[in-house]
Specification:
With 163 residues, this protein is of the alpha+beta class. The protein has five helices and five strands; from the N terminus they run ααβαββββαα. It has helices spanning 5-18, 25-34, 51-56, 128-137, 141-154, and strands at residues 48-50, 59-61, 68-77, 96-107, 111-113. Strands 1-4-3 form a three-stranded antiparallel beta sheet. Strands 2-5 form a two-stranded antiparallel sheet. The longest helix has 14 residues, at 5-18. The radius of gyration is 29 Å and the shape is flat.
């Protein structure tokens, strides 16, 4: 099962903040200094994160921004045959391994705060025009007559106390 977008973003943030390796710091500093960001403003794990980590922090990477490439290890479960403990016969959890891949990181200066979604007015078309016209006309007398007839058949008096 795939993780939800929020889970994926939180996982990316926790990996970025919780990692202790400094192996990627040299390419991070070199890449962002090349882009004109002063060395003092580059703080890995504080203001340099992946796209999904920035989303988890409530920020959006600007369209067209190019980040720096870093090497990362992604944990994976082995897809081989399930292993069985020879002594107890129990199924064992799949072995975890890691796969090397690259990721793109962005500096805080390449992001903007995410604005809350604005409520947009209904679009004209796709039945909206008909809905708005019906709303302005008021209740349909045919529908009211049908509801009254259903209530009568069910023995319900919609206009007074129960009988």
């Amino acid at each position: 099962m795939r993780a939800s977008r929020e889970e994926m973003q939180q996982e990316a943030l926790s990996r970025a903040v919780g990692n202790q390796s400094t192996a990627n710091w040299a390419p991070i500093f070199a890449g962002f200094m090349e882009k004109g960001i002063p060395e003092d403003d580059i703080k890995p794990r504080e203001n340099v994160f992946t796209y999904h980590a920035w989303r988890a922090l409530g920020r959006q990477v600007r369209r067209g921004e190019h980040g720096g490439k870093v090497t990362t290890w992604v944990p994976m479960k082995d897809k081989g045959e399930p292993t069985v403990d020879p002594t107890t016969g129990e199924k064992l959890e799949p072995r975890m391994s890691k796969r090397c891949t690259s990721a793109t990181v962005f500096h805080v200066s390449q992001t903007d705060p995410i604005q809350p979604a604005k409520q947009s007015p209904p679009r004209q078309g796709d039945g909206t025009r008909a809905y708005l016209a019906a709303r302005d006309r008021g209740p349909d007398p045919v529908d009211l007559a049908y509801e009254d007839r259903c209530a009568e058949l069910a023995g319900i008096n919609p206009f007074g106390p129960p009988e």
